[in-house]
Design brief:
Layout lengths: L7 E4 L2 E5 L10 E4 L4 E4 L5 E4 L22 E5 L4 H12 L6 E5 L28 H7 L11 E4 L4 E4 L2 H10 L18 H16 L1 H6 L4 H22 L12 H20 L11 H11 L2 H4 L4 H11 L29
Parallel strand pairs: 6-7
Antiparallel strand pairs: 1-2, 2-5, 3-4, 6-8, 8-9
Helix pairs in contact: 1-3, 1-7, 4-6, 4-7, 6-8, 7-10
Length: about 350
C-alpha cells in the first residue's frame, strides 16, 4: 500500500482529511484487526468536517423523480444522527408503506457501511454487501464519500439524494397523497425563515459542534469547540425557558434536527467526544424538551441505543482503541412522565 497515495480516511459520518504532503517518511502506523483497518495519522494533518453530499436530485410532481408508491428506498444507519432525521420524518408522516427502508450494520469498518442481519440491521434486497455498491451502481465513476442516508430510486437504479436536510423536506411535502398524516408539516411557510435561521446555528455549533470536540486535532481546537458548544447549548436552554419549541409553540424540523444530537449526548458524546461540562439531563428546560419529544411513541420507536453506542465506541478506534462499550449511563430520566405530551 503506497502511503503517499492516502488522502482521505472516512471516520463515521465525518471525514478526516489528510494532508496531501504525507509521504513514506511520515510517521503513520497502520493497525490491522480481523474487522477493519485503523490508521494512525499525526494530528497536524487532520481537519474535521461533515462531508458535502454528492447527489442532489429532488422528488417532485412532474419532475424526473415523481412521488410514487413503493418506488423509493431509504437506506439509513440507526446510529447516524443525520440519517435518524429522515427515519423520524418518514415515521411521523406515515410513509412506511410508501418508502421502503433498509438499515445498515452499526459497525463502520474499512469497507464502509455494510449490510447484515444482526441487532436489527437488514440484509440488502439487491444482494449488496456494502453501501458503496449503491454509489457505484448509481455512478460507476463515483469516487466521493460513502455516507448515509441514501434515497434510492428502484425504477431507474440510481441515488436520488443523500443529503438528509433535503430528504426530510421531500418526505414532509412531496408524498402527502400517500401519507397517513396528510397536511402535517414540519416546515410551515410562516415559520420557514425562523426555522432556517435556527437550523444554521444549531448545525454548526451543536450538531457539528460535538464532532468538532470529538475529532479535535489539538488542545486549542478542542478548547474552542468545547466552549462554543456549551455557549450554544446555554442559548437553547434560554430559548426553551420561554417557549415549548425552538420556533415558538410549533414543533418543526428544527426540533427534529436538534433531537437527534440531544438523544446521543449523554450516552455517547459526553464521554466519547469529551463534551463533559454537563449532561443534557442537567439542563432543566432542555431535558424536559428532550423527554417530551422522546416519549412520543413514533419517535421513541426510531431510537436504537444499542446501535448508537456500539457504533461510536466500536468504530472509532482512534478515540477508543479497545472498542469497549460503556454499560452506562442510566437514562431513566427520559422515561420520567411529562404532562405536556407531543401530539400531532
Amino acid at each position: 500500500m503506497g502511503l503517499g497515495a492516502i488522502n482521505i480516511i472516512c471516520i463515521s459520518f465525518f471525514t478526516l482529511e489528510v494532508d496531501r504532503q504525507i509521504n513514506t517518511n511520515t510517521n503513520i502506523n497502520i493497525k490491522m484487526s480481523t474487522a477493519t483497518t485503523f490508521i494512525d495519522i499525526p494530528t497536524n494533518h487532520i481537519q474535521t468536517r461533515r462531508p458535502q453530499s454528492s447527489f442532489k436530485h429532488c422528488i417532485t410532481k412532474g419532475g424526473e423523480f415523481p412521488p410514487e408508491q413503493g418506488r423509493y428506498l431509504l437506506i439509513i444507519s440507526l446510529a447516524c444522527p443525520w440519517a435518524h432525521r429522515t427515519y423520524i420524518v418518514r415515521k411521523l408522516k406515515g410513509l412506511e408503506s410508501t418508502i421502503d427502508l433498509e438499515i445498515v450494520d452499526y459497525f463502520l469498518g474499512n469497507g464502509g457501511w455494510h449490510f447484515s442481519d444482526r441487532h436489527g440491521s437488514t440484509p440488502d434486497v439487491n444482494g449488496f454487501k456494502f453501501l458503496k455498491e449503491y454509489y457505484i451502481k448509481s455512478d460507476p465513476e463515483f469516487s466521493g464519500r460513502i455516507t448515509v442516508p441514501v434515497l434510492w430510486d428502484k425504477k431507474t437504479n440510481q441515488i436520488v439524494n443523500n443529503e438528509s436536510s433535503e430528504i426530510i423536506r421531500m418526505f414532509n411535502k412531496e408524498f402527502d397523497e400517500f401519507s397517513s398524516r396528510p397536511g402535517l408539516t414540519f416546515y410551515p411557510d410562516q415559520h420557514a425563515q425562523a426555522i432556517d435561521e435556527v437550523n444554521s446555528w444549531i448545525y454548526d455549533n451543536i450538531n457539528n459542534g460535538v464532532y468538532k470536540c470529538g475529532f479535535a486535532s489539538g488542545q486549542e481546537g478542542y478548547d474552542k469547540a468545547f466552549e462554543n458548544l456549551f455557549i450554544h447549548l446555554d442559548k437553547v436552554e434560554e430559548i426553551l425557558s420561554k417557549q415549548a419549541f425552538l420556533v415558538g409553540s410549533t414543533f418543526t424540523e428544527a426540533d427534529i434536527r436538534l433531537f437527534t444530537t440531544l438523544i446521543r449526548f449523554d450516552p455517547v458524546y459526553y464521554v466519547h467526544f469529551k463534551t463533559n461540562k454537563r449532561m443534557i439531563k442537567d439542563y432543566p428546560h432542555i431535558s424536559k424538551y428532550l423527554r417530551r419529544i422522546y416519549q412520543h411513541s413514533d419517535i421513541k420507536s426510531t431510537v436504537d441505543m444499542f446501535h448508537i453506542k456500539h457504533h461510536y465506541y466500536e468504530s472509532h478506534r482512534q478515540i477508543n482503541p479497545l472498542g469497549i462499550v460503556p454499560v452506562g449511563p442510566e437514562l431513566d430520566y427520559l422515561e420520567s412522565p411529562i404532562e405536556e405530551k407531543l401530539i400531532f
